[in-house]
Design brief:
Keywords: Acyltransferase, Transferase. Pfam families: Acetyltransf_1. InterPro entries: Acyl_CoA_acyltransferase, Bact_Acetyltransf, GNAT_dom. The protein has 158 residues and is α+β, with helices and mostly antiparallel strands. The chain has one domain: Aminopeptidase, CATH 3.40.630. The chain is 30% helix and 25% strand. The protein is built from 4 helices and 5 strands, in the order βααβββαβα. It has a 5-stranded mixed sheet with strand order 1-2-3-4-5. Strand 2 and strand 3 form a beta hairpin.
Length: 158
Amino acid sequence: MHIRPIHQGDAPRLAILLEQLGFPSSLRDVRHRLSYWLDDPASFLLGADDDGVLAGVAALHVTPIIEVTGKFARLVALVVDAESRRRGAGRALMAAAEERARAAGCLFIEVTSSRERHTAHQFYESLGYADTHEQARRFVHTLTGVPLPHDPGSHPRP
């Protein structure tokens, strides 16, 4: 298994992975999303390739910080195919994301995860990530009326 950049040709497999993550997406939607993700110099889509099959993906976005000198990275999505889990793809994707974040001058990586994803929380903690929900809260306001991606009531969860 090796880590590589995602490309438009990955759209069909990415649609399957997004479904497994709990975000059903049409092939058309995924191709559209890839068009703006792949053109954004502050965004990185990393794929875990298992003998030519996309086994997982990590989506990382880098943001400058105004309060201190530096940037931070947000892992906005991580999914490994159900058949490929517990074989190191998630750890490899996280290591690659951390490497990209360091190279971009990031001071830290932030990960958001739905409260129900207990297995994912254990995974992040095993990698040294700390749950900081006691220190900060997250407030979100929709601008379009479209359900928010991390709203537990807006999408079915696996």
